[in-house]
Structures are given as structure tokens and as C-alpha cells.
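Aim 2 progress update. The chain analyzed this quarter is reproduced below.
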Amino acid sequence: MSQEVLETFLGDVVDCGKVEIVVFSGGEPFLVRKKIGKPISFLCAKGLAVSVQTSAYWAESPAKAIRVLSSLPGISQLVVSVDEFHQEFVPFQNVANACTACAELGIDIRIHTLAYESERVETQLKERIPASVASKISVYRNQAIHLVGRGHNLRDHPNIVRQDVFPERVCFSCSVAFLLPDGTVTACGGDMQWNGKGCDFFELGVLGKNSFSEITSAAEKNYLVHAMRLWGPKRLAEIAIARGVAANLGSTYIRDDICDLCCDLFSNPEIVDVIKKELDKAGFRREIALARAFFLGELEML
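Predicted C-alpha cells:
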């Protein structure tokens, strides 16, 4: 997408008044540091928080970490991915350097790691950075290895635990609008987006063709998105079973990984047809509207 189209879109985002934070993810945003600098400065000037996700490959020393972060004024949060797969290429000391630099510059820092690695990561951080810095760092433990990208062939990894029950968690991604490199705006930022399984059902619009107000309007009316926000894919899997298409579902799923279940549901045409028909029913739509009001305090569908 062109810089002009992106800047127009971000202007719409600011004008709508509904967005509090914009996240630059990837891939690796710091590989295109010159391209994201102007949008970050623009968003900061308009009062929006800006978060950037990274591996911290660029933080080869404390001085360089400060220099790189200072070249992108406006970043309010840095999210660093830390696990055995990233550390194949990025020394852990880089992560420590990024943490120290953020503390000096007043940037909030958050570590994303895998559940089974959280203890190791926290121990290594304490060994490499001052206690005053470590105490300010939030460590978020992702539930599971995601089988996308370089993780596509890790289905037999020893730390992947499969269970014969549906993962039970709401989808937080469906409360976020994801802007993809081709300009598509979607409510799915999970595994389906990266392996091409069924992600079209979560598409909200296309940058350059739709304004942000049109995209937010589409999201507001999307019953699938709100069902996922309320119940996650487990509820949809239970509907598939009740409608007699259980044979099309897998026998096991990765523990706590709702993306694994979503990929299964939305890659099967028969199940997709069942879900679509259910979402068209007035009774189910009413249930979604009432649940939004009760659990989320959102009255727009009533």
C-alpha cells in the first residue's frame, strides 16, 4: 500500500474517536523503520498510544537500543517476542538491552513468551537487567505454539499438548481491527490469517475502498465477530455438533489454542454453511445482542 493511502486511513482512525491505541506488528516493523516513523509521529501528535512489536534484533548494545528507539519518537509501548524460536537468531542480551533502553526513555515494555518458557525468560531478565527495570516489565505468557510461519512444521514439538476437548476461551483478536499489507482490514489476527484457512469470513473492508467509519460500521453489524468475542469458537463447534456435522471436526486440539479450533471450523465448507445459517437466525442474533449488552455493556445491536 502507498504511504498516502496509509496516512489517509490513519487520519480516518483518529477522526472516528473510537481508537485509543495503534499497534505496529509484523513480521518485524523495525526492518521498515523509515516508513513507520511518520505514521507513529502523526498518531502520537493526535494523542493516540502507539505500540510496536519486535524481536529486538536491533538492540545489539544499550547505546544502540537507545539510539534506535529515539529515532522513532512517539512509541509509548514496546512488545518484545521472546522464546526459543526467536532466540535462534536474536541473543537474549538484545532483549535485555531493549528493556534497559525503554526504562531510560520512559517507554512501557511488555514481553511476550510461551507459557512453558515464562520461568526461564523471567530468570534471564533478572540476571541481565537492574531490579528497578525488571519490576516494571510485564511478561505475557502466550498459551501455545502457533503452527504458522516457521512454526508450521512444529505439530510434533514436545511442548505442544493436545486434548480431546475444545479450547475454551473468548477471542480477544475479534475486538481489534487488523490492517494487512494488501490493505485488507480484518477482525482475525490469528493463525487463520497466516495459513489462509477461512479468514475471509472476518474481513471488514479494504483500505482505499472503504473509510474507517464504514469498516467500524461493518464490524458493528458482524454477528460472527461478536459471537467470537463473547464465546470464542467453542460455541460454534457445539452448534456444528448439534446440527449433525461433528464428523467433520478433529478429534484433538492444542490445549488453550482457540486458533487451532478456528482453523478446523472455517476450513470445512459444510461446517461453514451450518455456522452461516445459524448466524442468519433471528433467535441467535437476538441472543448475541443481549449477551453483548449484558457481558460487554454494548447496546448497539438492541
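The chain has two domains: 1-142, 154-302. The first strand starts at residue 21 and ends at 24. These observations will guide the mutagenesis experiments scheduled for the next reporting period.
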